[in-house]
Amino acid sequence: CKNLTYDTTALPTAGIVLVFVDEMWSALMRTVFSILDAGPIELISEIILVDDASQKDHLGQPLDDYIRIFNGKVKVVRLPERKGLIAARLVGYENVTGEVIIYLDAHMEVNKGWLEPLLHRIKQDDTVIAIPHIDSIKHETFEVFHNAFGNRHHHHRR
After folding, report:
1. Residue 17 burial (CB count, 10 A)
2. Across 71-77, average pLDDT
3. Rounded to an integer, what is the distance from CA 58 to the centroid of its chain?
4. Is the peptide bond preceding residue 40 cis, with omega within 30 degrees of 0?
5. What span, in angstroms and rounded, lies between the C-alpha atoms of 70 and 74?
């Protein structure tokens, strides 16, 4: 993908849904900022943060207050009681205005050029579910494991 250039004006827009429960502030914000920094911003209709009934205080009013810096690009949707990942993702889906929906974990980082290949593939065939190549970060050391294409061995964070 590195050697390809994409006409971003021809690609569909994407709404990005992050479901979280009691997520660390730094992890959640790292995810949000990496998405906005990597862009392209014109292809991101919004980032929907779906709170699946978190109990942590920092994810309440402080989060609502903080996301104002994003001028409406980031929105929080709160579930009054725990619904689970799939039901929470469906609530996120209902709030996306983009042509494509992307579900990401709430504790990850994307790199420049992550979005265009996914949207390009979906534009080619809108029945496709495009799944990105994901590297793992060892939570004890923050060492990055570059998972070779086709390598299904993941270092899960527990």
Report:
1. 25
2. 98
3. 20
4. yes
5. 6
